[in-house]
Request: fold
Amino acid sequence: MTTEGKQPGSDSRSAKRLLLGEPLPTDKLDGQLLPKKLALPIFASDALSSVAYAPQELLMILMLGGLAFLSFAPWVAACVVVLLVVVVASYRQLIKAYPSGGGDYEVAHKNLGEKAGLVVASALLVDYVLTVAVSVASGVDNIISALPDLNPWRIELAVGFVLLLMAVNLRGVRESSKAFAVPTYLFIGSVFVMIVVGLLRTAFGDAPVASSAAFTVEGEDLSRAAFILLLLRAFSSGCSALTGVEAVSNGVPAFRRPKVRNAQSTLVLMGGTAIVLFAGLTAVALVSGVHYAENACSLDGFANCETAPQPSLMAQVAAAVFGQGSILFFIIQAATACVLLLAANTAFNGFPLLGAVLARDAYAPKSLNTRGDRLVFSNGMILLGLAACAILVIYQASLTQLIQLYIIGVFVSFTLGQTGMVRHWVRMLRAGEGDRGEVWRGLVINSGGALLTAVVLIVVTVTKFTHGAWLVFVLMPVLYTLMLGVNRYYRDVDREIEVDDTTTFGSAGDHAIVMIGKMQKPALKALDYALAARHESIAAVHVSTDEEATRLLENQWKQQDIRVPLVILESPYRDFAVPIVTYIKRYRELHGPTVVTVYLPQYIVGHWWESLLHNRRAKRVRNQLMLVHGVAIALVPWLLDSSELIYGRRSRPLPGQERRGEPIRAVTRTPLPPPGDRHAHR
Amino acid sequence: MTTEGKQPGSDSRSAKRLLLGEPLPTDKLDGQLLPKKLALPIFASDALSSVAYAPQELLMILMLGGLAFLSFAPWVAACVVVLLVVVVASYRQLIKAYPSGGGDYEVAHKNLGEKAGLVVASALLVDYVLTVAVSVASGVDNIISALPDLNPWRIELAVGFVLLLMAVNLRGVRESSKAFAVPTYLFIGSVFVMIVVGLLRTAFGDAPVASSAAFTVEGEDLSRAAFILLLLRAFSSGCSALTGVEAVSNGVPAFRRPKVRNAQSTLVLMGGTAIVLFAGLTAVALVSGVHYAENACSLDGFANCETAPQPSLMAQVAAAVFGQGSILFFIIQAATACVLLLAANTAFNGFPLLGAVLARDAYAPKSLNTRGDRLVFSNGMILLGLAACAILVIYQASLTQLIQLYIIGVFVSFTLGQTGMVRHWVRMLRAGEGDRGEVWRGLVINSGGALLTAVVLIVVTVTKFTHGAWLVFVLMPVLYTLMLGVNRYYRDVDREIEVDDTTTFGSAGDHAIVMIGKMQKPALKALDYALAARHESIAAVHVSTDEEATRLLENQWKQQDIRVPLVILESPYRDFAVPIVTYIKRYRELHGPTVVTVYLPQYIVGHWWESLLHNRRAKRVRNQLMLVHGVAIALVPWLLDSSELIYGRRSRPLPGQERRGEPIRAVTRTPLPPPGDRHAHR
Reply:
């Protein structure tokens, strides 16, 4: 007999409930939709939080050329701002044209074909994982900037936060957004105040001074080419401020109606906020003289570079403006850390949605398109969480290393998404659809977007490839190939099981085999059920591997006066399936083709360890018999209660599961009816 | 739908065949029995191989007291020899009285009760694992003594050998014994020659001189108590020469007929050989002045104690007698290493046999009593192999540490086994059974044996407990408790499923539910089989989680003109089991108690990865429905071929598995018969 654990009613279920909350019905789906004021923190935290690291990475790269290079910072930052404006404008068009949440994937798929769509999908999947990793790493950086004692637990903290986010998200969208709205608004507010105060103090002649303002670093003597490359690299790193803009376009279905307008205005609001914070923070950092180096030890004046990390740019600015250790300093750091963790949360909204879309289109396992008890795509969330943890462990939660892998994917999807939009508008123009002015406007905006993002993609690739981004160019093709393979597999399966003209009913014959090991209740229950099903003919079959046991069974069979014929099959190789297969073959030779139902008693055990104590034989037999043509397997369950009697644990019964333990007597009417009668009606 | 891998015909099967050989029928069991000349190497290698380490450990302990203590060595060795004679004599009696292979376990169980039996069993189980670990560790020691370059791979070598032994044993008893007979005889012969040559050279005034003869070690100033304790410790370590004597008594069923006489003479032959080799080797070692210390660095004169291990006693004697690097030296080392590995092999014969006996008596999982394809108890072998590997890794394959855990278990089972024998003879005396003289002889021999082994057990425990043997005293109670728990579990299950007077047939009613997800062949095949089974009433049931899909199905249902009623069940929580459970409940409210058969289509996939691409939903549904009272699950398999079509792999079909891929048409006679007719015969 096979054994299976009880799924429902087990204790693990109540633990799950405690963690995730009660299950929600499907019609609650609308109730889970997001109003704008909650959608902003959810979908915008990624783009906004980039402010916490984009200026830092921008300035850090520039400082590789020496302090003098910092004078180029405003220009580089301005380029980033311009790019941000263009991209936000482009995505406003995209949301309107494709509001189903497929985002760049859908646009590229529909307008540029399957392959472009899959390139975007693989780019986005990689980038979602990196969004989690980078944001959490940066968040932990900011926490450590405020509480340096935590430095030894950097990786553990990062992994812990990812798992926490995963758990929160598994509970469902709205609850997470509620919990997340406060810190996002706090971050926007407090950083804005910090920028204003910093700039006002400067205006009034009391400019804030960063702790690192006195640190110097030796600039290398750069050739003209290296000079330009350095500027481009700084720009590339600054572009990390753009990550997350696409999140809104992927999340449109989660918005409250009118979805498109709400999503669009959220996008614009987010873009505006991001620009103000990015530009403002860069300005205050420059004004207060933050000198931030990739390797703290290269800073002339930084004392304990070996033991402690350099505080993040955000921490240095906050300390300069409000004073190290002031309450406002800690508020800024806490809000920054929180919003970075929420940025990771964006991916927990986007990745499962994209996964579900891919699963719907049969490019990913169907299980990614299954909503869990709490109406979220649980499997996608778990996948994302585990992948992010792996990346964090591999890269030791180092922001500087992780950021090198980042953005490539974003700009791949930006470029292909915008190109798809251009194709979309051109097609509309040709077909004469839509408002002519609007179409032209869209075409111009998206053409600009496509061109600009393509250029940036090239810049980013060139400047980052050797710094670690090559890995992304390995992962993307792997994902691409996997998705293509999955699609081909599903297509083949669908074709195989498609109902066509040749599909007809008409299997005939109805022979039942009840496998009898010993004269025990589970076997008799199976026999009883087989009798109840009134098969045309029925045989109790015993596979003999031990002569003595067989003889005992034969005697008991006669004693109990069971009038179903007991067929003994010899099994010299102690195999249980082959003799039965042979029996079925012979039966068919005599009686013609017939459907054969094999009844197998099956123990249901209450604890995982119990299954160690029961032979796996029946499971093997079942799997083997299922390969035989024209055979159905009827599992007759027998719930083993003894463990619960001994160990005093009783699991919750499923609704409808009235009583257990005495299945044969439960519907008893007559004692041992002559089964021969049933046989007679053949 | 659930997915299950195909067990037979898969590629893993052919790999298994290559490794293990073709399966053997049960009636070949007698052909697998051992003639004496093969039984000796198999069952005696353990006891004989102890010679390779027992003298070494004995001398090593004595040397803790300084070189002067070596003069006690002959006396201590003599004690060991006497003990060996007594134990062999005792076991001759035991084999005759209990030839079924249960050995000490059976004797203690039958004569002293269940608990004594389980104590013996747990002691033996622990000691089998340690036999493997100690023998392999010592074997690797001897290999490294000859080839010191292998020292860094000590643990890897040890684990590798254990896995090799496991694989060889999984192929079956006789083949392993053939492979193993040669080195055992080579070992006996070559060591015997070495002893004779060594002693003859001494007699003729040309005594061999060991390389370590010049090394000295400082003796501690010992109190009288410490002096005696040291002698006892040396004796305890020397007693490791006795391990393996019981192997023959546990292996009687594997002997060729007449089993008892063959086993007895093998035992005596083994005992004699062990005594000659042990005494001879100790003598030559003393004559040639081998100075062996636990820590090579404590030896005054041993140069590279930090980097290289001291050669084993066997290697030092061989080098002294035949010359370091001579061919005979390498033959001795190779034979020693081989016979030690074969000693480990003894455990691979004994452990699974004991496991099977325990499983037969319901103290261990039944799977330990299942003979594999090659007629051996495969599961026990795998368990032993893995446990030994774990111990070797934990103790870094260090012989000196492992030997501290050893012997305790052996003497526990010796003592209880002999005590049981005493009880056996006393009972026979009282009942007046058997030949009076023989019974009295047995009583005297076994009383002596019991007394002596009990004393030794106390000595061994006292001298070894703090040196690591405490672990054995933790493991044994754990095993003991586990076995008692397993027994109680099986007893409870057996009582629960026992057929009694109240067991009656008579389940009535015959309703079939066919779960329909989409209009696809697997679902229709399930419906077809349900129709073929001619249930009293039948309903196609669709659990609706997506309105659109449900509407499509309803239309197709009408289009295809399937006259089985399609019941739509709403599932707001996207659960599949609960709506069906509710449906069954309502059905029974209307029609009275009835057996319900739920038909579930089930994908059978060819590769493990395919199951990732199919929802696990049906498996969950199946497990949930099996908890419902009065429900049987009929699995209708659908073999997915597409993967093989794409990837060009086709697995071997099971006999009887004629054709695949078109199950519905296969037995077609009439296209789409009106199922309404079937309904009518209610």
